[in-house]
């Protein structure tokens, strides 16, 4: 099977500027509806959010989603109906398994805008007991290598404690990796194998670390390629769908003049 890479350009994402919130939607979300970009495998939401100081999302309910936040800059205050209160900072990964239902709020904490990715995935089972997990990954842990920050609950090395080292556990057939790639550096990734399945889906996203930009993507510049010669060039805010076989090698090369922070999803 030929692997294909289909770009998802930054300016083509759903977008809303509410003043207090500036947000991009990779997939259909809220007022942005697009049947061609509704979900990908079990991946349902990738929102790149910027929330102004002293503002945020008031208390609201969720159920039957795995919800995780990847903090890029600033601080994010999380409160929920399970009694969790936490201030998340750069490098923190918070995962809420909403299960039968939770209520939570998210606010910018302090005097600086918070920039984070909000990601939702569809669980493999319904009716789960709600759970909350946090993990921290330093820039050094991501520099020029893949840090595995989220993995299925039954994957090797996954710890089910609220706070621990290693990837946060998710009830989805999804693994999430993050890297901060230096200029002139190439980083390979081999898609995982799952018993009984040879087909994989991937999604890669280049985070807008250099600043908010509604127009055509600028900033960091990477080239993504796979073994059969398919390539695509991406800049900050751009992403790409990847479809093909397990065990195939994907390569991400930083062809720009600055570091590129990227996240990579590997799914059935």
TrEMBL record:
Top-level taxon of the source organism: Eukaryota
PANTHER family (alphabetical): QUERCETIN 2,3-DIOXYGENASE
Protein family according to the UniProt entry: Belongs to the pirin family.
Species assigned in the record: Grifola frondosa (Maitake)
UniProt cofactor note: Binds 1 Fe cation per subunit.
Keywords: Iron, Metal-binding
GO molecular function: metal ion binding
The Pirin N-terminal domain, residue ranges: 11-120
Alphabetical list of SUPFAM superfamilies matching this protein: RmlC-like cupins
Binding-site residues, Fe cation: 60, 62, 104, 106
Entry keyword Iron-sulfur: no
Cofactor(s) in the UniProt record: Fe cation
InterPro entries in UniProt: Pirin (IPR012093), Pirin_N_dom (IPR003829), RmlC-like_jellyroll (IPR014710), RmlC_Cupin_sf (IPR011051)
Protein's UniProt name: Pirin N-terminal domain-containing protein
């Amino acid at each position: 099977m030929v692997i294909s890479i289909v770009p998802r350009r930054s300016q083509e994402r759903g977008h809303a500027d509410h003043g207090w919130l500036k947000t991009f939607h990779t997939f259909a979300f809220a007022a942005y509806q697009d049947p061609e970009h509704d979900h990908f495998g079990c991946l349902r939401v990738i929102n790149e959010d910027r929330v102004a100081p002293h503002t945020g999302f008031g208390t609201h309910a969720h159920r039957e989603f795995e919800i995780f936040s990847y903090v890029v800059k600033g601080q994010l205050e999380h409160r929920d109906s399970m009694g969790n209160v936490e201030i998340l900072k750069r490098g923190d990964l918070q995962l809420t398994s909403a299960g039968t239902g939770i209520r939570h709020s998210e606010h910018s904490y302090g005097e600086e805008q918070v920039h984070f990715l909000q990601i939702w995935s569809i669980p493999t089972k319904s009716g789960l007991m709600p759970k909350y997990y946090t993990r921290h990954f330093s820039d050094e842990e991501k520099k020029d290598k893949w840090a595995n920050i989220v993995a299925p609950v039954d994957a090797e090395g996954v710890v089910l404690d609220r706070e621990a080292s290693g990837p946060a556990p998710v009830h989805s057939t999804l693994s999430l990796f993050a890297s901060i790639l230096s200029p002139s550096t190439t980083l390979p990734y081999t898609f995982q194998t799952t018993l009984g399945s040879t087909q994989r889906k991937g999604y890669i996203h280049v985070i807008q670390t250099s600043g908010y930009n509604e127009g055509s993507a600028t900033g960091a510049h990477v080239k993504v390629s796979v073994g059969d010669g398919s390539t695509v060039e991406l800049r900050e805010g751009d992403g790409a769908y990847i479809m093909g076989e397990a065990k195939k090698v994907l390569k991400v090369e930083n062809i720009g003049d600055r570091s590129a922070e990227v996240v990579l999803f590997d799914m059935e």
